[in-house]
Every structure is written in C-alpha cells, then in structure tokens.
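Reviewer 2 asked us to include a model.

Predict the structure of this chain.
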Amino acid sequence: MSTSLHFRAIEHLGTRIVSGKLPTGHVMLAEHLEDELKVSRSVVREAVRVLQSLGLVETIKRVGIRVLPAHRWNPFDPMVIRWRLAGEGRGAQLRSLAELRFAVEPAAAELAAENAPGTLRSELVEISLAMREAGRAGDMATFLELDIRFHALVLSGSGNEMFANLIGQVTETLTGRTVHGLMPEHPKEAALQWHVEVAQAISDGDGDKAREASSSIMRETIADLSPGWAGQPRVFVPVERR
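Predicted model (structure tokens):
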C-alpha cells in the first residue's frame, strides 16, 4: 500500500471532519470513498482505522462509517490539533492549547530547575540566546526551530514523562502560529528576554524564577491570541456516571 495514498486519504477525511464539512452523524460508505479518493479498498480501510483511533469516526455494521462529535476526538493528537488549527475552529484550539500550556509549562520549568541534567541546562541557555538573536533579526524560520527545541527541552527536563509527552502538541501549536500568520515579524523583546530568564533560572537551579518567567511567557501568549478566540464555543466532554 502506498504510504502517500494512505496519508492523503487520512488528511482529506480528517480535515473535512474537523472543519465540519462532514458533520457529526454523517455516514460514509467505503465504496464511495474509494471512488471519491481514487484509492483501493485497503487504503480506505487503513485510513478509517487511523481516524477511528483518533475518535473521529466509528464503523457500524450494515450502516457505514459515521462521523463522531468533537467531544469524542482525541484532543491531544498532533494531527487533530493541526487540522483544527487549519480550520474555522482555530481560535478555540489555540485557546485550549494556551490554557493547557499555562497549566503545565511553568510547572515543568520549575521541575527542570530541580531535576534537569547539566547538559540540558547548558543547551537551554545556548538556545535561548540564539532565539533572541534570531528574533531580533526577524529570522522566523530559525526562531521557530529554536523555539520548538526550547520548549521541548523544558518539558523533557522536568523529569515528568507525562509532561514530556506533550512535546508533539506544543510543536504543532508553535508551528501553527507561524504557518497561519499569527506571529509578529519580530517577537517582542520582553518575550525574548523571558526565554533567556527561564533558561538561566533552570541552569541556576532556581525553580521559583523559572516558573515566574515561564508564566510571563504564557500570560503574554494568551494576551496576544485571546482576540482570535472571542466568541468561539468550548467543547464540554460529558462525564459518565460510574
């Protein structure tokens, strides 16, 4: 089976479901998808299997492939995040991600100051200084690459494997902001300095300063992005009684 065909089928269906073009409850038939996508049954089957694993669809015997509501989707999967960022639900997705990061990253920075190995601390300082240089120069491609590495190291350096497993989500967030034109041509000087302060505090083993500088980054991020999610609905996940 061609990997490119498989990927194209997943992307085509995933983006249409997340955008609402295929609404909740919509039923698709495998044979129709074969014709629409011009792929084999095995490609359709594998694409549907992936979408099922993401909570986007379910297969019902003698009915077809049914689209599931948003509260059933896996909100932590990088593909779902990327699809939401590309559609009309971008603001709501950015809000959810910003709130998640605000809850996690300052705590991760504090833990990294306490637990990170020496090599990681040194690399963080180097990256923060390179970020400041790239940001001041307006080299946003380099800045994005460094920014992703910076936040990945903070999460990893916490020593908490659950925090570290959010690296993919943070990567999609930072990439999406750049791809969709939500970053300024030059990052704010204060934000550049806060990254340096986070790195230096982690290097020095100062958890309180690391948490505060990281919180400053996230407060500024939320202030910058919040106009884009005004009026966007939230997703309320039903809680089942046990």
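The mean pLDDT is 95. The first strand starts at residue 27 and ends at 28. We have added this to the supplementary material.
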